[in-house]
Amino acid sequence: MFAKFLNLNPEKQDRILNAALKEFAQKGYQNASTNEIVKEAEISKGLLFHYFKNKKDLYLFLHNHFLDIFMEEIHKKINWSEKDIFERYRDIARLKFEVYQKYPEMFNFIKNVFTEDAAEVKVDMDRRKQEILSKGYKDLFGDIDTSKFKEGIDVERAINIIFWTMEGFSNRYHNKLDALQLELINIDELIAEMEFYSEVLRQGFYK
Amino acid sequence: MFAKFLNLNPEKQDRILNAALKEFAQKGYQNASTNEIVKEAEISKGLLFHYFKNKKDLYLFLHNHFLDIFMEEIHKKINWSEKDIFERYRDIARLKFEVYQKYPEMFNFIKNVFTEDAAEVKVDMDRRKQEILSKGYKDLFGDIDTSKFKEGIDVERAINIIFWTMEGFSNRYHNKLDALQLELINIDELIAEMEFYSEVLRQGFYK
Amino acid sequence: MFAKFLNLNPEKQDRILNAALKEFAQKGYQNASTNEIVKEAEISKGLLFHYFKNKKDLYLFLHNHFLDIFMEEIHKKINWSEKDIFERYRDIARLKFEVYQKYPEMFNFIKNVFTEDAAEVKVDMDRRKQEILSKGYKDLFGDIDTSKFKEGIDVERAINIIFWTMEGFSNRYHNKLDALQLELINIDELIAEMEFYSEVLRQGFYK
Amino acid sequence: MFAKFLNLNPEKQDRILNAALKEFAQKGYQNASTNEIVKEAEISKGLLFHYFKNKKDLYLFLHNHFLDIFMEEIHKKINWSEKDIFERYRDIARLKFEVYQKYPEMFNFIKNVFTEDAAEVKVDMDRRKQEILSKGYKDLFGDIDTSKFKEGIDVERAINIIFWTMEGFSNRYHNKLDALQLELINIDELIAEMEFYSEVLRQGFYK
DNA sequence: CATGAATGAGATTTCATTCAT
DNA sequence: TATGAATGAAATCTCATTCAT
């Protein structure tokens, strides 16, 4: 399917990928302009459609591509021997924000799968959302140590609560930065604040 | 600003409002077509731009308008004498899903403030998001009874956790319905499941 | 459907119609360029699509329009009291070639219904072809005097033979003109030559 | 001119020829895509244009090629000792429809010379049409027995009438099949119906 | 001989907005 | 107030043809 593209010299591949990434990340699927992409990538209009049969295919390819890169990064850098859910979360959060610092556009682009509502790609993205949530979840938290939870507590639901708390906290942090138009995250400060929430939850749920 | 529009005969106001609501809710800001709106509202193109100087203004006006209606609804129907946070949440959740059942388009439209990424309206929507979250929060949960929480717990953060849990749970429910292409919500079932989460949280946070 | 267009001031209607007619007649459906049409008609690109929702609709409208004009012309100018099939044919042929002289593009355009094979309009044109052939035939030759034919002859088939002969003759004449790149027809010469064929057929089929 | 191509190994020649035939027959000159042709023939874009300097040349070459094949077939299979024009026509008609059954694409392609109106090839095709009609005619009917015609009849014109009748009949049959979306021809039924027309003509023109 | 990446003009269609009436 | 004709830039995508390798 995309063999043609992958045979291309890597420098040009990169130019195309990054141009598309930037455009989609900033404007969303619908608003992104293939014209802008080719201009930024410095290729001809025809060439883009030589490699990707239409805008949708390009978008879907990009999504796979960068998600793969992101997941690889995660799997390499997480300390998998640490089984405590709060420690694990801290590692993941730190990594996530590091990636965001380094590749904000890539991060935004991937994140957009959760908000993209252009009819054309909605179905594919919805499927993807489900996969990421369920598979991603099992991958990342399937092996945590549940023996630390209080007797009598509904562990599965407690884990969901932890999950939602961490997500909620991250999002609020993100929003705050957006609102302040800041791009620089103080990751240590973030992790410290996160730790307070972990503490509250530990108090409530752990023995 | 919109005085001209508000002087218009109410029946025509309604036609315009509902046509625009439907279009924006279904297609998002960018994708919504003013052509479709005037066709549905049975007015001329010129008239729409006579009342609203551009598409963006129309969108912003609509948002204020329907959010006001929604908040009014909430304030009228909530039992404000109940000060327990979980009870309060249950009331709000029930109301939210009732509104969704009854006016899914209005609901979707308002909700879109959180996902809209069309460059033109993004800044305004981001500001709005902050307002809703902080002001809405204080409005709805400013008076709850904090004496029920365990001694030594960080109540403010605990409340945030409760908030994110309820939001996370609602969203997951919504997504599940979307994925199953269902439109009908069994509200009692939803509330019952929500109660389980409340129970876990009560166990952890309440005396 | 096309009410919008028909309300337009006639001078501009004409400019659009003639520009489109010319383009379609010369290049066929597929090859005709809406860009050329708007340029020739001196209107903006958008306006064409304000009146006709797409290229296909424009084509179909044009076809109806000019065919109507053509049929009206025929019905007005034929001497309907003459019931002899050969006389009737002579009248029609003369008229046809007069129209061709006067409006060669209109003529070519209508004729193209029989050769148009662009997938998009083929189905509609095929239906039309059937209609024209069967209805047109009945209209034009439904009332001829069959008592002149020899006893024992299969009149229906004889009429078909006359029909095909006249068509074949006309086409050959047309082709010859095309090949010689002539535009001017000597109609009297044509009719005279046609008369020879009528004579052969009369000899064979009439009492 | 096409020497290069004819030196190519026959299997590849065939792949190219058939791919082009199919594409042109199905879509007409203008609509046919050289992209599709190379894909179907499994050759590179460059190679096609190495052998044929452009699309038009390919089309013209194809036309010669398949017409030659078709004419050869005719000359081999007709019973040239039968000099009665109706018998000869029956043979030719039968053969034509047999070829159509067997190679509908080749048939359609050749036939298209009569309807092709893409500006680029129109002139060449018009010239070709004349050649086929006049030369083909002499080839096929130059030796028929004219002594069977009635005294006093204009034999040359009578033959034209027979010709147009048979063509007209064939075309009507074809159109009927197209309209019914049938692909299968009942050749015997067709010949039987044709015989009725022959009978009417014999009655009129033969002694 | 053979490849296939590259071109870029040109295709149809949409759209928010304006303005004369 | 109200109309709806008019605009034209911008959108996505196609296509025959070239050329360096």
From TrEMBL, chains A, B, C, D:
It comes from the Bacteria. Residues 10-70 form the HTH tetR-type domain. GO terms for molecular function: DNA binding. It holds the Pfam family TetR_N. Keywords: DNA-binding. Residues 33-52 bind DNA. InterPro entries: DNA-bd_HTH_TetR-type_CS, Homeodomain-like_sf, HTH-type_Tx_Regulator, HTH_TetR, Tet_transcr_reg_TetR-rel_C_sf. Signal peptide: none annotated. The keyword Cytoplasm does not apply. PROSITE patterns: HTH_TETR_1, HTH_TETR_2. This is TetR family transcriptional regulator.
